[in-house]
Each structure stands twice: as C-alpha cells, then as structure tokens.
What we know:
Chain A is mainly alpha-helical and 337 residues long. Chain A has helices at 2-33, 41-81, 95-102, 104-135, 141-149, 156-166, 179-186, 200-226, 230-238, 243-254, 256-271, 275-280, 290-299, 305-336.
Amino acid sequence: MVSQIVSAVGVMIVGVFVCALYYWLSDKVLNLALPVRDGDVTQASRNLNRRAVIRPWLFLGPALLLLGIYLVYPVIATFILSFHDRSGETFVGLANYRWAFFDAGFRQSIFNNILWLAVVPAACTFFGLVIAVLTDRIWWGNIAKSIVFMPMAISFVGASVIWKFIYEYRGASDSQIGLLNALVTALGGDPQVWISMPFWNNFFLMVILIWIQTGFAMVILSAALRGIPEETIEAAVIDGANGWQIFWKIMVPQIWGTIAVVWTTITILVLKVFDIVLTMTNGQWDTMVLANLMFDWMFRGGGDSGRSAVIALVIMAAVTPIMIWNIRQANRDAGGH
Amino acid sequence: MASLSLRLKRVGLPRLIVHLSVLVIVILWLIPTLGILVTSIRDKGQITTSGWWTAFSSSTQTSAGRLGDPSSARQEGANYVITGSVFEKGQGGTVSAFGVRVQEPAAFPVDKPADLGEGETLTVKPDGSYVYSKNAPFEGSRGKRIYLTVSTPPQFSLQNYETVLKGEGIGQAFINSLTVTIPATIIPILIAAFAAYALSWMSFPGRALIIAMVVGLIVVPLQMSLIPLLRLYNEVGNFLGTSSKTYAGIWLAHTAFGMPLAIYLLRNYIAGLPKEIIESARVDGASDFEIFLKIVLPLSFPALASFAIFQFLWVWNDLLVAIVFLGTGRDQLVLTGALNALLGSRGGNWEILTASAFVTILVPLAVFFGLQRYLVRGLLAGSVKGG
C-alpha cells in the first residue's frame, strides 16, 4: 500500500521532470539548429526570426497534442460513430437517430433533462443571490458563506450517500431513521419511499445538486454585488427607495451579466449530470437522464457505440449555443485589451 | 420596557430577520453532512433503532435474554431461587420494563415482583440483576426466555471506521484515489503554464484561433470523448499487449480533460502580468524560456494554486472517468467507485455507508477549508470573465 503511494509520488516527480526536460531540451535544440553567430548578420537575423516562429509551437506542443487526442479527435469520431452500427464498423445512415426519435427511454431522458434544466440553474441562482445579499449584511456572514459553499468540495457520490440517508425509508411500524420521513411522521403523515415516487423523485435528486451548487452561485454573485458602485445605492436611498426596490431595480440590473454566467455554468453542469442519478436510482423509477442513458448504452449488452454516440451528440448540441456565446465573449475581451 | 423597544429599534426588526434567516439557511445546509458524521461514529445497533438526531440521548430498544437454567437454582426456605443478570457479557444499559412474551416486552415494571403464575415470581432491577423464585423446584433443562425494554446510553466509537478501512476495502481505495490524484493534479500545471505563456506573450499566426478553441473546449461534455477514447485505449492495450485500464491511462485522461480550463485560467492571469517586467527582461537578453521560468512562473503562483485545487477536487471527486478508464478491481477502485459499489452491496448498512462516505469527503473538505481563499479566487477568475 505504501509502495503504491511512493510510486504515485515517483510518477509525479518523473512526470514533472520529463515535462521540464522536454521544454528545456526542445529550446536548446532549437537554439543549436538555428545558430545566431556574430559573423553573418543576415543569417543571424533570419535564424532569430525562424526561432520566433517555431518556439511558440514548442511551448504549445504538449498541450495541443493532449487537447487533440482527448477532446478534438473524439468529438469528430463520435460524430462519425453515430452513423454506424453498434460495433462501429457498418455504416447505417440515420438509423440511430431514428431509433432515438422513437425510443421511449430516450424521450423520458430528454423530458427529465429538461426538468432538471428548468429547476436546478434557476434554484441555485436564486438561492445563491438571496444568500449573497443576506450574508453581506451581517458580521458572521463569512462563516455562513463558508458553510453554504462547503458542499462544493463533496463529491456527487458522497453527496448522494448523504441525501440517501435523509430519504431513507422504514416501514410505518418502525421508527424512522431518515430525517425526511421522521419529519413527515412527526407531522402526522405516512412515511414515503421518496426515491421511487415517479416524477417527484426527480426533484428529490435535484435537491442534491442544488445543495452542492448554490455555494458556487453565491460566491460569484457575492463578488459581483460588492462590485456595484456605492453611489448608485446611496442615490436610491436618498430618493426614498426601500430595500426591496433597491434589490430589484438597482442591484439586480447591474449584475445581469454575472447572473447569466452563473446560470449558463450550472446549465452545462446539469446537462452532464451523471453521478447523482447513477448512485441514487441508476435511472430506475423514471429518473433516467441523457448522460446515464448514454453510459448505459455504452456497456449494455457489450455496448452500442452508435446509439450512445447519438445521445452524446444530443448533449453536445445542447451545450453548443453556450459554447459559441463563450467564444464570442472571450474574443470581445481579447479585442478590448 | 422603553429601553428594550429603543434597542430593538436600533437593531432593527429587519436586521433580526436577516440574522434568523441566515441561521436557518446555515442549519439547513449543515444538517445533511452532520447527519452522516454523527451516524458514522454511532453504535451499529443504535443506528437502526433511532434517528441520528437522538444520538445524544439514550435510545430504547427491545432485546431478549435468558434466565439461568434450573440446575443453578438454590433452595431458600420453601422457595427455589435463581439469581443473576439478564444481560450477557459486554451488554449494558438500563432495563425499564420486561415481559415473558415477545409480543409484550414491557408487560411488567422493574423493581416490583411480577407474578408469572404457577407460583413463579420474577423481580428485575434496572441494572439487569434479577431474582426468579418458585414455590416448587424448577423444571426443564433450559433457562426461561424473557424480553426486555432496555434503554442504552449513547455509545460512540470509531469502530465503524475500522471496519470500512480494513474490511470493506475503503483503505485500499483511499490509496488508489491518492495514486490517481497526485500525478493528475501536478502534471497538467506545467504543460498548461507553458501553453498559457505562449498564448499570452508570444505572437504567432493562429493565436486567436487557438484561444477560441480552448475556450470552446472548456464546455465540451466528457460524454463526447468516452466512446472513441475507450476504443482507442483498447487498441493501444491490444497493440502493447497490456490491459487497457492502467494508471498511466487515467493520468493522461485527467491531464487532458483538465487542460482547457487550466490554459484558460492561467492565460487570464499570465496575460495580466505587468508588461514592463517582461519587456525589460527581453531587452536584457533573456530568452522566452528564461522569462517563463524565472519571472512568469513565480509570479503566477496564486493562479497555479487555484487551478491545482480545482483539478485536485475534480479528480478526487470524479466517478465517470475512473469507472471508464480504470478498472473496477479491488486494487484499482477509487473512493468514489468503492462508495458507489457499497451503495449496491451494503444498501441498508448505514454504519458502513456513512463511515465510508465520510472517509471519501475528508480530504476534499480539508483542502477546501485550508485553501478556500485560492478556490474562491480561481472561481472568480474562471467564470466572471467569460466562462
């Protein structure tokens, strides 16, 4: 066991060393291959220019190689695979897309994903904003923020265990050890099997992601709120605006951009939600979402790469508008400099 | 009264509401984690009989015991008497009631002689000692079965942790998680930093295009990569004659998947470094390699730390990449995978699940509370600017 850790640390050191060696050696080789001597001025300046042309690519090389193999190539390959059969060898045209269109499981997943998209980003942003506003006004706000932010560090699997314990069900004659059922029975209700309650169980799973992500929204929005110029609020106070009006008419409009960023970031996360559904229900009781359906088809009956590629492409298509918006935004930032 | 209302006015009712609502939110957010922490240190038997919120008060449960067998009876005057304790060795608690039928474990109160009929009386004391007497010799060869209502004081121990670390493979999974996480956190930093420097301070054709590509790749779903990479890994594994599920494979995968965000974060930071420092180093004849190593890298420490925390949390908490690219064998299962497997095999054993869950979240929580400042800084740099 200890030897495994030692070897991991060893790999880390060797890995860092090999990387450093690559950058150092490639730089040296470049300088040797294109020498700059005092004698021939035109040759020297030509070589200097050539170095300047090549060097960026030496620096970028490893990163581009990794991005190419692990992200760019797979996107293209997945697209091609979606037109092939389960083994990926025979071209089948649009058969996989036709399957998806008529498959009840696929439709269920799309429906659930839309449900998640409608609830989770809105809930996280709303709670995040409310908590940010409230905690900014009290002396122990930072402690409160820390606690709301904490679930960010917890894995989705860990969070699922935490919440599964809250939803735990015991027969009506036993004493309830799940917090939710204990509350329900204390109020005179009957204990419920929350996780296998069709349709509503989706919301019980969403609560987990909201619990995790609200802290993220809160941190970003809190920073944005602090960036609002004091004068605008003071002016509103002098004009006799109350707290509610200040919040909706002065503060919120000034942080629209940040709200949009938080919303889209959580939207992307929701589209990829996988761990929570896998550990809580594994898609049973009508809780399947696209990422889990895709994973399911990847391995079900030896795997069907065509169908799971189609599902992956649907997720990709949903992300694409946000991707384009992000690129535009980044280009504008770069142009502004 | 006047001073109180005056003070209330100064504190302000709205202010009090703010304090109270934040308090409610904090409690709501804390309770789920607190639940598994408390449960993980409770006694196994108590977890199943009472909710964790009652952990600090005594719990009441029904248990069974057996009185001494007839051969241990002594004669006292006209009566035959058996004495002893209803508890077995190691068992403890306070008896509040007892009975002789399983349906009625609380038929008789303690400290009072109970008439069991046929001339038998049984007195049980709260500490478990009993006097069982009969006006005739006891018959049969086995002791009488009785049922007890016992309240046990709260018991806390680290027993559950010992069980999961040794017996349930969580200890090995912890080591596996470290093995995956350490290299997969450190190696991407250097690669991304060089790329970020090139994209910030070197000019070459196609730079804007690469930056746009990196920004675009940040949001590409992992799902797009899985199928082709799984096929690629199998081919490479076949070609080399080794398993396709190796640590080297998952290190590279995590390094690559973290690369777009790493380059983006570091570029934002490195491009914002003061131009004068880098220009004057160039004038002094320093090469790009030297500038990067001696000036840019040390100055970018906050950004490097932010990214390292992100990558650490992401790799440690990842489940999907681990189950696809690393095996599910005992020597390769990481903590998230092990916890997921336990949810299937140990569904109702909350003493095991809660202790395992707490082991998996322990390291990220320590990192979170220790380095929260860098985490927040990284989040702000990563999303406020663009996204």
